[in-house]
Amino acid sequence: MKSLGKQGSQNNNTFGMSNHNLVQDFELFLKGPIVLFRWKNAPGWPVELATPNVQELFGYSVEDFTSETVLYGDLIHPEDYQQVKSEVQHVQDANLEFLTHKPYRVRRKDGAWIWLLDCTIRQKALNGETLGFVGYVMDITERVQTRIALQSNLDRLKQLNQLICDTNRAETLKTVYRKAVQGVMELLKAQRAAILIFGQDQKPHFVAWEGLSKDYRSKVDGHCPWNLFDIAASPIYIPNVALSELDTTLKETLKQEGIGALGFFPLVGPDKLLGKFMVYYDQPTNFSSEELHFAQILAEGLAAIFQRMVALERARENQGNLETKNLDLIKTLQELKETQETLVQRERLAAIGQLATGVAHDFNNLLSGVLGYSELILASSSLNEENQTNLHKIIKASKRGASLVQQLLDYSRKTAPKTQVLDLGPFLKNHLEFLRPLLPDSLLVQLHLPPNGGTPLRVSADPHQLQQLLTNLVLNAKDAMPMGGNLDVHLLQTREKGDHACVLCDQIIQGDFAMIRVQDSGRGIPPKLMDRIFEPFMTTKEAGMGSGLGLSQVAGILAQNQGHLTVDSVPSQGTNFQIFLPCVHKPSTSTVINRQDQSSGKGERILLVEDNEEVRAVTKKMLESLGYFVLATKDGKEALEQISLKTKENGQKLSLVLSDMAMPKMDGRSFFQEFHSRHPNTPFLIMSGYPPGGEDSDFLQEGIAGWLQKPISLRTLSHEIRKHIGQPEGFKDALKKRAHTANPQ
């Protein structure tokens, strides 16, 4: 900043080379202009010097400022001027040197207001008198507007929540409708609003309104763009009545009422429409995406409240015999309350499930790069021991991240279980032996199996998911007993007669089950938390001791494997989880997976199709490190073009295709179908950020060689590719077998 002194006054258009470079560096870093100023300590803060890019930010040239044609103070917004002035005065009164203003607005030459961040240094004489100020300003308009928009959405959300709460507390349906109309107008800044409810004639009629004439209501009453059973109805918004394609009569009616824009929002019940709410604006108006979103949420909330109030008033109207009807009313209200709680819980769980599927693909793509490059570097012979250790830690952390994504997917039921018939006795024994090294010596673990000679207890379940379920329960029990204790795992056959209900699905448990009881002597679960223990990210552990996904994953796994669960817990005495899995009477089909060491290729040609640049790059390097020749493309269309081109050039054929599932232009399924029609004998592997779900079952039968879940380790990649390249005849036989299964004739 020294060059901002007297030496810099030699040129009104620059502060010297060093400051010019400084400006360029700041602009490169912040991707926006930064203007350096020297202001005189005089009314209006006239500018003595400024950098040339002042015109880019303010629209005024350096000469406009230095000639005092424009005073900096005159550009400050009237509402912000006193703030800036007070801050400058405070710096002088307190004899401070540095000052960072609170963000304030200034007017550009074109009249637009922009927000600035202003950082200045006070220049003073030896006697302490202020000579002037030097510093820089930069445009932060976009950031301020983003913050304002976020705050606006937060305020609107609070307002929406308050509206629903106020409406929900109303005691009569008429009051509910009136409060709803008033709240709709306030939330959506509408000049008028109305609620119409379907009657017995299957037409909607006005039940509450604001600002609408009797003549208008009589003309449009009974009209609706949807029928009573159109539960898939979508909102309709008309931003400009005059320019719309509405029916001429309706358009004229709206104009006569002075309506410039309007919106229809359906109130959807369980099996039919309850009605609609409408908002009206005097002038043409555009809804923002946020406003449309809040309006839809409001419609859903109002529909639930209306439905509750209709049920309540119907119960009141039908009340005859006070004693008998009062019991019926209490029962109805309780069922309604439970239904509301169930709906809220399902919506919350569905939101987490949707989040899981959205995050899984992108997060696993990210982990693919981290894991792939780490394994490639680890294979280098030039690494010292310390770097090898660090890389192992990175690989371990990457796999832990993939495991967390898998837990989310299990919870949201987005994975397709690979069921086998399992004999639970040996299965439990083997898995507990596997877990023993993870448990402290202070923990006494005992497995209680049925007496020898008894009938084996077999169930149909995914062994990997069942292992994860047991691991979660055992490790939870360990964490509940930090000072040691008893952990008992019982296996027994039970015939349930409907005395218990599943805490996950509320179904009555009836029939023959294999029951696994995991019982500990730990601190137990507080009663107030029992209803929330299966929620994602809900945990009573200290920070850093768990993600809160363990029991939610248990819930998801049991739902996929047709299982049930009950839980009992007494504080300071322990917790008892009981898992119920339906018994099957088939021989065991469980198999042991043999892990093969990493194999090397012999220059076979592999086509890699992946739209994510980082994942494509690291996968290509991994394949090349295994000894394969790789042709990498970013989507299915480009891949088909490259195949045709390369085949014409050198006549060489592909040995295998490795393709991503979710891609632009042509997804993995479409690409496979097109490729397979041309090259039916070439193995085709799909890789994806999450395992195949139920909707992919048909695709898996169309002839793909396998499905690889990201992130893919180097060992897994080597094993899967060698399995298909090394055994081409076996792959062809598999295709024939699939074809025969689909067409047995």
Q: What's this model, at a glance?
A:
The chain has 745 residues and is an alpha+beta fold. Helix content is 44%, strand content 21%. Helix 6 (141-168) packs parallel to helix 10 (289-317) and helix 10 packs antiparallel against helix 11 (322-378).
Indicate the topology.
Blueprint: H1 17-30, E1 34-40, E2 47-50, H2 54-58, H3 62-66, H4 72-75, H5 78-93, E3 98-100, E4 104-107, E5 113-124, E6 130-139, H6 141-168, H7 173-188, E7 192-198, E8 204-210, H8 214-220, E9 236-238, H9 248-256, E10 261-268, E11 273-281, H10 289-317, H11 322-378, H12 385-411, E12 420-423, H13 424-435, E13 443-448, E14 458-461, H14 463-479, E15 485-501, E16 508-520, H15 550-560, E17 564-570, E18 574-582, E19 605-609, H16 613-625, E20 629-633, H17 636-650, E21 656-660, H18 668-678, E22 684-688, H19 697-700, E23 706-709, H20 714-725, H21 728-742
Parallel strand pairs: 13-15, 19-20, 19-21, 21-22, 22-23
Antiparallel strand pairs: 1-2, 1-6, 3-5, 4-5, 5-6, 7-8, 7-11, 9-10, 10-11, 12-14, 15-16, 16-18, 17-18
Helix pairs in contact: 6-7, 6-10, 7-10, 10-11, 11-12, 11-16, 12-15, 14-15
